[in-house]
Design goal:
The complex is a heterodimer of chains A (about 220) and B (about 450). Chain A has about 220 residues and is mainly α. Helices cover about 75% and strands about 0% of the residues of chain A. Chain B has about 450 residues and is an alpha/beta fold. The chains are: A mainly alpha (about 220), B alpha/beta (about 450).
Chain lengths: ~220, ~450
C-alpha cells in the first residue's frame, strides 16, 4: 500500500481505538497486524522486542485498572493492556515495511507536503546514525583528557546539541550546494505510486473496521 | 546579455564580525566566465569565508561593505568536510535528490546517474551507506553529484584534502570535463599539486585582501618543491607498545585480515594507504571504537580486556574532525581544563601562552567551534600534547594547514611530545617534511599492515 495512506490508516484506526474501548476489536487488530508482519518476514528478534519492550508499561496499566480502580473491572483492564499492544503492532506494520525515505517522498509527491518540510525531516533522519557515532566519539574524547562523561552527564548532551546545530547548518549548506531551493518546483525521478487500488484498499479496510469496533463485543 | 555570461564581479567587499576587525578587507575581483581561478593563502586567512560569501551560504558575521555581482543561479560546491556535503543516506538517493532539484526527467536522470557513476568510479558505492565510506570515497561521490548537476559555477573548498595522490589526480582530471563545457571554477587550496596545467589565474591572499599573482609569483608557487627523499628504516621488534597476531577488522568490508602489526616504544610512524584502505579504522580499533578479531595487546595486555577509562588516557587520538576533540566552549576554558587535569611537564602556562600567540590563537574568549579549519587543527594538537598520552594517534593533522603551519606543528610535536619516551602514529597524505617527524613508515595494502623502507 502507498506509504502515506498506510500512515493515515494507522493514525485513524489508532485514534478510534483510543476513543472507544473494545477488547475484541483490539485483539482482532493485533492478530491482523501479526499476520501482516509475518507476511513481511519480520525477524523473531524484532518480534520479541515488540512484545517485551512495552510489557512493563502494559502490566502497570493492567494493575492500576484492575486492582486500584473502584470498579476492579477485569475486561476494562485487559482492554487497556491490549490497547497498548494495538498501538505498538499497528505502528510496527508501518515502520517495518516503510523506510523514512519512502514515507517522506510519498508525503511530498502524493500528499503535496511542502518539500522544505519533507526533506528537512528526512535529512535530519539521515543524521541519526551519525549522532550515534558522535556520542561514542565525544565519550572517548573525554576519556582521553581525563573527563569521564557518563550517560547522564550534561556536558555530553551539550556537546551533542552543539554538533546537532553544526549539522543543521551543514545540511542547509549541503542541500543548497546540490541545487535545492525552497520555492523551486522539483521533478520526480523515483515516483511513489498512488493507485486506485491503494485508495480502494484504504477505504475498504477503514469501513470494514467500523462494525468490528462499534458492534462486536465479547 | 544574460548574467550567465557576465564575469563574476566582487567589488570593495569587506566582511567580519566587527567593523574595526574585518576578516576580509576591500576585496576586488573579477572572475571571467568559463575560467579556472585558484585562490591560495595561509591558514585562517578567510579563503573559505570568501567562497561561502560567493555561494550565499550562511555565515556568522556580516558584509560590512561592497558587493558580489553576477553569481550564476546554478552553482555547486564541494566541501572539505564531507559531513557538509550530503543530505541523503546513499549516493544514489543523493543523486536523485539533486537531479530532482534541477527538475530533470526520470529517463534523463537515470542515464546521467549511470554516466557519472562510471566516470567517477562509484558504481559499486551507489547503494552503500555514505556514513560508512572513507573520506576519499565520499569525495568521489561529491564529484559525481557535481558532474551530474553540470553547474555554471563550481566552488571547491579544499576539495582534495582527504584524498590520496591517486584519487587527487583522478578527480583533478574530472575538472577538465567541467572546464570543457564552460563551467567557471573557483578553487581554494593550499596544496597546489596538480593545478598548474589547468588553472588560468591564481589569486593570493595578502593582509586580508586578495590580489592576482603576477608571473614571478605564479612561477614560485608552482615551482617543483625539492621533493624530499623519503627515507625510512624498518623498526626492530623489541620493547613493543603494541603487538598483534592475526589482527582483522571489518567496517562495511574486511579492511585488514590476519595482519601482524607492531609498534615499538619511542617510535614515530607514518601510516599510509589508499583512500578506503582502513587507516582511520585502525585508529578506531586502537581506541576501542571498533571491534577486532585476533589478538592485539598494549603493554602485553589484551586491548579488549582493558578498561576504556584508563586505557584511553594512555592511547589518545587527534581526530580528523576537529569539533569532536573539544570539550569546552572557548579557547581559554580548554586551556584551563588541560592545565588542571592534564599534565605535560614540558609545557607551563607561560609557554602555552607564547605558543598560542604565535599560532594566532590569542583570543581567550573565542569560541573553539568558530576557529578556522587550520587553527582548529593546531589547537587540537596542542590540547592532546597537553594530555600527554603514551601513544598519540594523529588522523590527518596537516589537512588544511599551509606549509609553514605544518612545519610549526611538526616542531611542536618533536619538542614537547616526542622528546619524552613516547610514540605516535600519523595518517597523512601530505609528505612535506614528514621524514623530519617520522622514523618509520607503515603501509596498509592488500589488507596487511607492513613496515616499508625506501
Amino acid at each position: 500500500m502507498n506509504p502515506s495512506l498506510k500512515l493515515f490508516l494507522v493514525l485513524i484506526i489508532s485514534l478510534e481505538v483510543s476513543l472507544k474501548a473494545n477488547l475484541l476489536a483490539n485483539l482482532i487488530l493485533i492478530f491482523i497486524s501479526l499476520i501482516y508482519l509475518f507476511i513481511h518476514r519480520v525477524s523473531l528478534k524484532e518480534l520479541l522486542g515488540l512484545i517485551f519492550v512495552p510489557l512493563i508499561a502494559a502490566i502497570a496499566i493492567f494493575i492500576a485498572i484492575y486492582y486500584y480502580s473502584p470498579a476492579h473491572d477485569l475486561i476494562y483492564a485487559w482492554t487497556l493492556f491490549s490497547r497498548l499492544y494495538t498501538f505498538v503492532f499497528l505502528g510496527a506494520c508501518l515502520t517495518k515495511t516503510t523506510t523514512a525515505t519512502q514515507l517522506s517522498r510519498s508525503l511530498e509527491q502524493n500528499m503535496h507536503l511542502p518539500t522544505k518540510f519533507a526533506y528537512g525531516t528526512l535529512a535530519a533522519f539521515n543524521v541519526l546514525p551519525k549522532i550515534g557515532q558522535e556520542v561514542k566519539r565525544i565519550h572517548a574524547a573525554g576519556q582521553m583528557r581525563a573527563m569521564n562523561l557518563s550517560f547522564y552527564s550534561p556536558r555530553l548532551y551539550f556537546k551533542a546539541i552543539l554538533s546537532a546545530i553544526s549539522w543543521a547548518d551543514g545540511l542547509n549548506d549541503a542541500m543548497q550546494a546540490h541545487g535545492f531551493r525552497e520555492t523551486q518546483a522539483r521533478s520526480i525521478i523515483d515516483p511513489i505510486a498512488l493507485t486506485k487500488k491503494d485508495w480502494l484498499l484504504f477505504i475498504l479496510l477503514l469501513i470494514s473496521f467500523q462494525p468490528i469496533l462499534f458492534f462486536l463485543y465479547i | 546579455m544574460s548574467s550567465t555570461y557576465k564575469p563574476l564581479k566582487i567589488s570593495h567587499l569587506s566582511f567580519g564580525y566587527d567593523k574595526n576587525k574585518p576578516i576580509l578587507n576591500d576585496i576586488n575581483l573579477t572572475i571571467p566566465r568559463g575560467g579556472f581561478s585558484l585562490i591560495t593563502g595561509p591558514t585562517g586567512c578567510g579563503k573559505s569565508t570568501l567562497l561561502r560569501l560567493i555561494a550565499g551560504l550562511n555565515l556568522q558575521g556580516k558584509i560590512i561593505g561592497g558587493q558580489i555581482e553576477n553569481v550564476p543561479c546554478k552553482w555547486s560546491m564541494v566541501f572539505q568536510n564531507s559531513d557538509r556535503q550530503f543530505t541523503m543516506a546513499t549516493a544514489y538517493q543523493e543523486l536523485v535528490f539533486t537531479l530532482e532539484n534541477l527538475q530533470i526527467s526520470r529517463a534523463r536522470a537515470l542515464k546521467t546517474i549511470k554516466e557519472v557513476a562510471t566516470v567517477t568510479n562509484i558504481s559499486d558505492l551507489l547503494h552503500k551507506k555514505i556514513v560508512n565510506l572513507s573520506g576519499g570515497e565520499k569525495q568521489r561521490i561529491a564529484f559525481a553529484v557535481a558532474l551530474a548537476m553540470k553547474p555554471d559555477l563550481l566552488l571547491l573548498d579544499e576539495a582534495f584534502a582527504s584524498c590520496d595522490q591517486r584519487n587527487r589526480e583522478f578527480l583533478q582530471k574530472q575538472l577538465l570535463t567541467f572546464k570543457n563545457y564552460g563551467c567557471t571554477i573557483i578553487a581554494v587550496d593550499h596544496n597546489l599539486d596538480g593545478y598548474q596545467d589547468m588553472c588560468d589565474q591564481v589569486y593570493l591572499f595578502k593582509n586580508k585582501t586578495l590580489a592576482l599573482a603576477d608571473e614571478t609569483e605564479t612561477r614560485t608557487l608552482f615551482s617543483p618543491k625539492s621533493k624530499m627523499e623519503l627515507a625510512f628504516k624498518i623498526p626492530a621488534k623489541e620493547n613493543l607498545v603494541f603487538a598483534s597476531r592475526n589482527l582483522s577488522y571489518v567496517q562495511e568490508k574486511t579492511l585488514v585480515a590476519k595482519s601482524n602489526f607492531y609498534l615499538p616504544q619511542n617510535s614515530s610512524v607514518l601510516l599510509t594507504g589508499e583512500n578506503g584502505a582502513g587507516k582511520s579504522s585502525l585508529f578506531k580499533v586502537l581506541t576501542k571504537l571498533l571491534a577486532y578479531n585476533g589478538s592485539l595487546s598494549y603493554q602485553n595486555k589484551e586491548v579488549k580486556k582493558l578498561k576504556a577509562k584508563k586505557y584511553l588516557r594512555n592511547v589518545s587520538q587527534v581526530f580528523q574532525n576537529s569539533d569532536d576533540q573539544f570539550l569546552m566552549v572557548t579557547v581559554g576554558e580548554e586551556i584551563d581544563f588541560s592545565l588542571k587535569h592534564n599534565a605535560n611537564s614540558l609545557l607551563n602556562e607561560e609557554k602555552i601562552q607564547h605558543i598560542l600567540k604565535s599560532w594566532g590563537l590569542n583570543r581567550r574568549d573565542q569560541v573553539v567551534y568558530s576557529l578556522s579549519g587550520g587553527q582548529k587543527k593546531k589547537f587540537q594538537v596542542l590540547l592532546m600534547v597537553l594530555a600527554n598520552p603514551d601513544v598519540l594517534l594523529l588522523d590527518e593533522p596537516f589537512a588544511g594547514l599551509d606549509l609553514a603551519s605544518s612545519q610549526e606543528v611538526i616542531s611542536f610535536l618533536k619538542k614537547y611530545y616526542l622528546s619524552q619516551t613516547k610514540s605516535l602514529i600519523v595518517i597523512s597524505h601530505q609528505f612535506n617534511n614528514i621524514s623530519e617527524l617520522c622514523d618509520y613508515h607503515l603501509h596498509l595494502r592488500d589488507k596487511k599492515l607492513t613496515y616499508v623502507s625506501h
